Here is the input.
Amino acid sequence: MNNAATLSAWDPGPRGRAVETGLWLFMAVVSMLFALFITAYAMRMDAAADWSPIAMPPQLWLSSALLLAGGLLLQRAASAARTLHHARAQRWLLAGGMAAMAFLGSQLWAWQSLVDARVALAGNPAASFFYLLTALHGLHVIGGLVAWAATAATPAADEPRRRALYIGLCARYWHFLFAVWAVLFATLGWLTPEVVRFICGRG
Amino acid sequence: MAIADTHSHDDAPRSFFTRYIWSQDHKVIAVQYAGTAIAVGLVGLLLSNLMRLQIGFPGIFEFITPERYYQYVTMHGMIMVIYLLTALFLGGFGNYLIPLMVGARDMVFPYMNMLSFWVYLLSVVVLMASFFVPGGPTGAGWTLYPPQAILPGTPGHDWGIILMLVSLLIFIVATTMGGLNYVTTVLQARCEGMTLLRLPLSVWGIFVATILALLAFPALFVSGVMMLLDKTLGTSFFMPALLSMGQGTDYRGGSPLLFQHLFWFFGHPEVYIVALPAFGIVSDLISVHARKAIFGYRTMVWAIVVIGGLSFVVWAHHMFVSGMNPWFGFFFATSTLIIAVPTAIKVYNWVLTLWRGDIHLSVPMLFTLAFILTFLAGGLTGLFLGNVSVDIPLSGTYFVVAHFHMVMGVAPLLVVFGGITHWYPKVTGRMLDERLGRIHFWITFLGTYLIYFPMHYLGVMGMPRRYYDYANYEFIPASAHALNAFITVVALLVGAAQLLFVANLLWSARHGRRADANPWRAASLEWATPQTPPAHGNWGAQLPVVHRWAYAYSVPGAAQDFVPQHAAAASGGLEPDPPAASAQRGGGRP
Here is the structure.
């Protein structure tokens, strides 16, 4: 148990460093995964003339705000945990997780609005990619929520260092999820066949 | 890196179940991985023999229908590359060697390590299940190219291909869980004094190969998910508008070429995911069994890293025949030939390590020497095939079959045999039977040359690969058919000889000669465990402290002809360019 009032200048220890490294590596793998999907998206866009872009449902803006907010709330939770304000940390932590769940709800709402507009999965490749990429991103958020739930269920008083570390890692992963989402949203919404052809030097 | 030994020593599992089945101990998981990989590898071997029966003696074995033949080809390829070699090198050797060689008590995430094995086992079960579903396993060829992979006309186009794709996706999850563990353990759990540039080359090879796996398997994941959706939900990621069996399909606009790019963006690094651990292990075996420091250790490390990097920019050399801008062909041919430079450096360094060494022709050394020769032969034909103009006429022939079997089939397997023979005494506390080992070696080594050397000639003669039978092809002379029959007979013999190896593994575990803690008098850390086989936690009460590299052999003035990595600093045998004093004090960093 640490008696200092703050853990801010603290060394995560060998176990903490290992977990941090593991998370960095995992984020590299996920980045590769989405980078390849986006490359495939651009190549498929350019492969045939059957591409008909879909209008981005407005709910996606709400989703973006919720995911960003989730990361910021978790960041505050991590700061509170490092200064040993356990109750406040727990509140921010729960709020951050709720925001992520709301993000998933908002994504489903966006899907519903597309389905209502008769945008089918197999209808055209833009729609196929939209459903596929948002679903995969959603799965990564759900994975994050599993880690979040495990962290939230850890009693605060027992191991404050470990808890502060894990909350900080949740925040880091949430920022990463937001960055991935921002790139995905931009790609799905604004990358056009003309831009792809321009990038490939054939525009 | 400050090394705090936070491991509690009284957490060893007590029940049989937690000790050997649901185990979190890297050594048990390694044996589980290796055992599963070898078992599924035997299935792959059987399939290759069935395939050879058809090629050598067409029409005699009526149960080998064209559909079954293609299913054998496909499953043989996928099983051997992914479920045997990748799993065995990373999950088997990686799991066993990394913690012991870097001086750790276990992998950094033992629970995830255990999950990695069980998820791998699930992927194998799903793959094997495809033999029993309606239509049987997929016969699309191991590259699974669309559109044919999911269309009627290809065997297993219904259930077989779905199970194959699902199995691959599960395998990728398992490999990622394992891979995060291996890389993090190498980066974060090395014992005091074990700088990166003191790691044995086995660890370097497995470490870089794991990074390749982490970054390359996502490409297979992407292509697998998209093909699965094309098959099951009717999307058109890869499927162009086409008529199938005279019927129109709902597919339109998809790009089969996109699949090829994704597949080979995974597929080429995959070659090095298999080859780099083999390179590393061979370097260690040569050094131990020739009683000589590895020649050019740092160059070897850099060669591994450079090969790993280059392996990501050569993928389209597998696609020369699919048609591409000539400048692309030029680029990929050039990058492919450049990879030969670091690879050749490695071969030279192995030979220079042998030069004037005290070479012991033990079974591991025999396999090592066989590897160098086989890899050299397979690598040189790679230089032929790396050129677009040579590749195009040869691409569809047995020349390619000969090339890739020599370079990434047989060569890494020879290392597997050598490596298992070398570390078996550490794993079980007993030696493998030497006579059986030698018989197995000679049959395997000579046999594979008798199988694959003639295939080069068949290929140059224009004999096409992937064909079910060669009746009525005027340009194929009778001698080629005779050669095929000969190859088949040898393949059956070599196949049967592998049972000797398996029998040796099983028999020696109980009846083999008892091994002492360090039977090969090796300097690396895994031989310094207080118990053999190592107990849970590996190192007893105290973690080891390392004072030198792993190649202090035949050190002038030393008491014996090797100085263990953990022997006191005064024993000498330092690496040629030791790290600064600060690293000596603090450990870890290079």
